[in-house]
Amino acid sequence: MVGFGGAETLPNKVQPFISALSVSFAVGGVQKSRCTFGVRRSIWELITRTLELSPGVLDTTVLVVLFREGENIYERAIAKHMASRPFGFQWKNCPNNCRGQFNIKPKTKTNGRVSLQCTLCRWKSRKISYWAGNDHFHQMNGNMPAIFWYEFPPQPSLQNMFF
After folding, report:
1. pTM, 2 dp
2. The domain containing residue 66 runs over which residues?
């Protein structure tokens, strides 16, 4: 199952990805089915390969996938790191309980580190590198260094990782 999140999820933005993903499933084969070359592909691998070809879908939305591999069921969100959305995630609170998605402003540095600042109480977070994954955010692969995935729904500790 594939879903999209965000206020800017427009059909013309997600349609190319959905079309490419449909072709990947049909041509690449899914799980136990075999493609014409006899290679088995996992659903996660097909999603990753499709994102490599259609990364623009993540410019305005977060991709949420629910899939099964073997006996395991996975729920993941995939997002693009941007100056306005570190790790592709919308940060909403500070340790002083100031809440609201427009109160927390990310500060991205050219040295590969990002921090958050609250516009209400002026709190500033510690700096975290965005060149690599961490306990919550995992880079998709080397071909897409700005694309991260995280468990969905996000754990409460994720919102607090800058504290």
Report:
1. 0.82
2. 2-80
